[in-house]
Design a protein that fits this description.
It comes from Marinobacterium aestuariivivens. Helix 2 crosses helix 4 and helix 3 (38-53) packs antiparallel against helix 4 (58-88). The protein starts with a helix and ends in a 7-residue tail after the last helix. It contains four helices and no strands. By secondary structure, it is an all-alpha fold.
Length: 95
């Protein structure tokens, strides 16, 4: 049961640290930050899958599933934003 509390503590701490880091970034840097940190979203996703794999109770499984869902959303969103940002820099004329 202690392992579940440790996983919950790590999950809550990661959420708090992530919020604090992102909230201090100026608005103009959000798109480059997201496009440059897609690998971080992948690491979060892997960590959430590891936590989900070690879950024993329903509550731990639910929290792990939410972590995997949010991590996957972050990763996909990061790639979508990167693609849109790169489209802005393409030439409008056909070569």
């Amino acid at each position: 049961m202690i392992d579940g509390f440790i996983l919950l503590y790590v999950f809550m701490l990661a959420g708090f640290v992530g919020y604090e880091v992102i909230s201090r970034v100026p608005v103009i840097l959000h798109t480059p930050l997201m496009s440059g940190s897609n690998f971080v979203h992948g690491i979060v996703l892997v960590g959430a899958m590891v936590a989900l794999g070690q879950a024993q109770t329903f509550l731990e499984q639910l929290i792990g599933f939410v972590g995997v869902l949010l991590g996957a959303g972050n990763a996909v969103g990061g790639y979508v934003v990167t693609e849109r940002m790169l489209e802005m820099f393409k030439s409008s004329r056909e070569d």
